[in-house]
Amino acid sequence: KKHKGYSYLASDIFLGIVWTALYFLRPDLRRQQFFVSILSAPLAPLSQVLWFSKDYWHPPYALATTIAGVPVGIEELFFAFFISGIGSVIYQVVFSKKVERGERQIWLTVFVAAATVITFLALKQSDFNTIWASTDALFLGALLMIVINRRLFMDSIMSAILVLVLVYPLYWLLFALFPDAHQIFWVSGGLSGIDLLGAPIEEMTWFVAWAMFAGILYEFYRAPNASIADNQV
Fold first, then answer.
1. What is the end-to-end Cα distance of the chain in Å, rounded?
2. Model confidence pLDDT, tens digit, residues 53-87
3. Which of 3, 25, 166, 198 is most deeply packed, by most CB within 10 A?
4. Are 199 and 171 in contact (CB under 8 A)?
């Protein structure tokens, strides 16, 4: 089981390479990318300790410690940092989109964030599995931002598609190397057993929700009426 823990770390390294490439390809997006990464990084280890480890996910770690009696690895921190930063800029980088910035919309962003968190906590109180509670809350947060600023729709959708293209091969490789990964990485009963193109549907749906949310969070914060131009950078 110990050697399986390195698969999570290896995935983080891969995501780190992608994050770094995006960072250097678009200097104009570095503030956005780093802001979303830093904001998101603590969320994975925190949510792992409080919720995910109990009903969904308990992967073996290569670099682990124990917090409140729950094993948690630095891999969680790396994962949240890298996937969030990637999701926040991947659409603009791949399609060479230039973003026009406006005034900061602090209170609208706080409203969306609060609604997302409250929805997650309410679903947890209703005995939702953590993966679906977080997925539904993220979908709601993304939907709120799109309703307020419809120009962010394409950014949100394309961010989700591009993140799926990025992470799917990691899951294919994981299950090819470790056919018993379902039992090793996930809590018993945490997965429905339904796979979508060779990966658990829970995982892929969560990535879609997270990418839709993280992909437009900074644009929404900078200006609900900001436009994404079609001109090349």
1. 47
2. 999 999 989 888 999 889 999 999 999 999 999 99
3. 166
4. yes
